[in-house]
Write a structure and sequence with these properties.
The protein is an alpha+beta fold. The chain folds into two domains: 177 residues, Peptide methionine sulfoxide reductase (Metal Binding Protein, Guanine Nucleotide Exchange Factor, Chain A, Beta Complex); 172 residues, 2-Layer Sandwich (Peptide Methionine Sulfoxide Reductase, Chain A), CATH 3.30.1060. The protein has nine helices and 19 strands. A six-stranded antiparallel β-sheet has the order 5-6-10-9-8-7. The radius of gyration is 24 Å and the shape is elongated. Bound molecules: zinc ion (ZN). Zinc ion binds next to loops. The site of zinc ion has 8 residues, from loops.
């Protein structure tokens, strides 16, 4: 029997564990799959680019085979390829995704298939980002997404300890360590005025896994919207960005940051006035502090801004997540990635010029 990486009941990826393949007749597949899924998974079809539902999914989690549920790709290896199809630089386990030479359509390509049910997934190309240099190009229809919080639901019976044994099997233990050997994501915490605007500007960047709004610089007792609005808490409205440093660097994030707000305004952004709207970079290490200082110094010297850059460098002590309704704001409008990055800074301008047009709780 082939060995697959599988999830256990604790939501941990373990293995490889030997498990049977899934072999069904076409009639059985037709019953199990939607017509679109059947066309792609079983009849080797391709969905149209930019149409797939998982293309812009940035939630942390796992992509499984829509045919048999085998885990195939982690969000940690998802990247923005610009091709219009969900793209990954690495399979979740070498035994989970099979490859086959494909000479259809007058091209020589490498087809990728689910190793358990032979479902067609897409193709793999040698033009991906580091560390693998590969681009696994997927059809959304071939995949089923499960968020990180729900991974225990993907538990495969093959991972259960054999009846009568006290604990998890040795194989599962060894596997869970391997499962932890994942890509190191990094964190950047930035304050540039209203966190709705900064959050939105970063949310759609390739390599940015998620952006959260919160408060930074004050104590836990005052880390709430009402208190922070008073301007006396030491907190700034800030965002915490979780990113893949292989796809976007800290310096690149800071460049976007400098574009997404006005770093020359002290303790305000337009009509938003007070130290809670200050421009600040909260560094989490000496390395981040040095790199941020360099970017600010270069920005100051570049002539790019008409006035001196006043962004402060402050040590990151604790990032306090803002209330849920603040997190929702930017995520309610994420549909068009490019438009988002270009339109939101403008939207913020409009918001500053016409604050009354925004009938939210802030005014
Ligand atoms: Zn499958």
């Amino acid at each position: 029997m082939p060995g697959f990486k599988l999830f256990n009941r604790r939501g941990e990826l373990v293995g490889p564990i030997e498990a049977p393949r899934v072999e069904l007749s076409d009639a059985e597949w037709r019953q199990r799959l939607t017509p679109d899924q059947f066309r792609i998974l079983r009849a080797h079809g391709t969905e149209r680019p930019f149409c797939g539902t998982l293309l812009d999914n940035k939630t942390a989690g796992v992509y499984c085979c829509a045919g048999c549920g085998l885990p195939l790709f982690s969000s940690r290896s998802k990247f923005h390829s610009g091709t219009g199809w969900p793209s990954f630089f690495e399979a979740i386990g070498p035994g989970n995704v099979a490859e086959r030479r494909d000479i259809s359509h007058g091209m020589v390509r490498v087809e990728i298939l689910c190793a358990r049910c032979d479902g067609h997934l897409g193709h793999v190309f040698p033009d991906g980002p580091p560390p693998t240099g590969l681009r696994y190009c997927l059809n959304s229809e071939s995949l089923q997404f499960t968020a990180e919080t729900g991974l225990a639901a993907l538990a495969d019976p093959a991972t259960d300890p054999p009846a009568g044994s006290a604990g998890p099997s040795a194989a599962a233990d060894a596997g869970s360590e391997e499962g932890d050997e994942t890509l190191a994501l990094e964190i950047a915490v930035l304050a540039g005025g209203c966190f709705w605007c900064t959050e939105a500007a970063f949310e759609q960047l390739a390599g940015v896994l998620d952006v959260e709004s919160g408060y930074c610089g004050g104590t836990p007792e005052t880390a709430n919207y009402k208190a922070v609005c008073s301007g006396t808490t030491g907190h700034a409205e800030a965002i915490r960005i979780r990113y893949n440093p292989l796809q976007i660097t800290f310096e690149q994030l800071l460049e976007v940051f400098l574009d997404a707000h006005d770093p020359t305004q002290k303790n305000r952004q337009g009509n938003d006035v007070g130290p809670q709207y200050r421009s600040a970079i909260f560094y989490s290490s000496a390395d981040q502090r040095e790199r941020a200082a360099r970017v600010l110094e270069q920005a100051g010297r570049s002539g790019r801004f008409p006035r001196p850059v006043v962004t402060t460098l402050e040590p990151l002590t604790h990032f306090h997540l803002a209330e849920a309704y603040h997190q929702d704001y930017a995520r309610n409008n994420p549909d068009q990635p490019y438009i988002m990055y270009h339109a939101v800074p403008k939207a913020c301008e409009v918001r500053k010029k016409y604050p009354r047009l925004f009938t939210d709780d802030r005014r």
